[in-house]
Design a protein that fits this description.
By secondary structure, this protein is of the alpha/beta class. The protein has 4 helices and 5 strands; from the N terminus they run βαβαββαβα. The chain has a single domain, classed as Oxidized Rhodanese, domain 1 (3-Layer(aba) Sandwich). It has a 5-stranded parallel sheet. α3 links the parallel β4 and β5. The longest helix is centred in the C-terminal third of the chain and has 12 residues. It is globular and about 35 Å long.
Amino acid sequence: MAVQEISVNELIELVESGSLVIDVREPDEYVSGHIPGAILVPLSTVLENSSEFLSEDTVFVVCRSGGRSMQACELLHDNGIVNVVNVAGGTMGWISLGNEVVTGENPS
C-alpha cells in the first residue's frame, strides 16, 4: 500500500477541524515556526515514538517541504501504522500560502 499524500491547501481545513498533525523536523526548526497544533516528533525518533501516531483518525505528517515526512510515513507503514498521510509542500508550503504559524516549543 502506497503512502497517501495531500496538499497544504487540503490541510488547512483539516487543521481548522482539529485533525492531528505531527511535525517531524528538528526541534530548532519546529521552534522557529510550525503549523498551529502540530506536535513535534523528530524523524530520528519516529519509530521509538510510534505510539504518537496511533489514532483511529488519520494522522497528517509534515516537515519542511515533504521529504522527511514521506520518509516518516514510509517507516510507519513498514511497521504496520498505515493511518498516516504525508503533507506535500510541508511547512514552507503552509507559510507561502500566508497561513498562521506558531513559534516556540508548544503546539499552539
